[in-house]
Amino acid sequence: MNASQNPFITISTPITKNVITECNYEYFGFNCYVNELILNVSVELEVNIAYLLNGELDSTNYLNDGKYSYMKKYIILSGIDYSNWSNDDSYIINWVSNNIQYIINSDLNNPSNIYNGHTINRI
Questions:
Q1: Of 28, 22, 77, nearest to 51 (Cα)?
Q2: Which are the contacts of 78, defined by CB distance < 8 A and separation ≥ 6?
Q3: How many Å apart are CA 123 and CA 116, to the nearest integer?
Q4: What CA–CA distance (Å, rounded) separates 53 from 24?
Q5: Alpha-carbon separation of residue 38 from 21, 33, 118 (angstroms)
Q6: Which one of 28, 30, 88, 94 has the largest count of C-beta atoms within 10 Å of its C-beta?
Q7: Cβ atoms within 10 A of the Cβ of 55, count?
Q8: Taking the CB of residue 121, how many other CB atoms lie within 10 A of it?
Q9: SS3 34
Q10: What is the pLDDT of residues 45-75, one digit of tens each?
Q11: In the sheet that 69-78 helps form, which strands lie side by side, from edge to edge?
């Protein structure tokens, strides 16, 4: 049957179908920076998490390096988590790695707006 041989027939009531698409996030690594440090009290970390959305760069996110998109999250370590850090940056790297879902779910906005520029880890 050739479509050009048959006229287009309109219907009086349009039919709609809702299509639900899955958003599949894959996480690949992170960069972690000390954003603010209050000696003997707490450290605020900026964690940039590398991800792909449905296997591609996230077109709604301008933060990318051409390979991964990045979501920027903030967390504050205090108490025992802060004191365990001491001078060992591997503690922070391990803490972030072990708590990545907590960090992804964090809704803490950048409270300090101060960047000290101390890089802890790069992917």
A1: 28
A2: 41, 42, 43
A3: 19
A4: 6
A5: 44, 14, 14
A6: 30
A7: 7
A8: 17
A9: strand
A10: 999 999 999 999 999 998 999 999 999 999 9
A11: 69-78, 42-53, 25-38, 118-121
Q: Over the chain, what is the mean pLDDT?
A: 81
pTM above 0.85, yes or no: no
Tokens coding 86 = 């001491």
What is the torsion angle, in degrees rounded to the nearest 10, for the CA atoms of residue 98, residue 67, residue 36 and residue 91? 30
> Do 102 and 94 form a contact (C-beta atoms < 8 A)?
no
Structure tokens given for 40: 């003997």
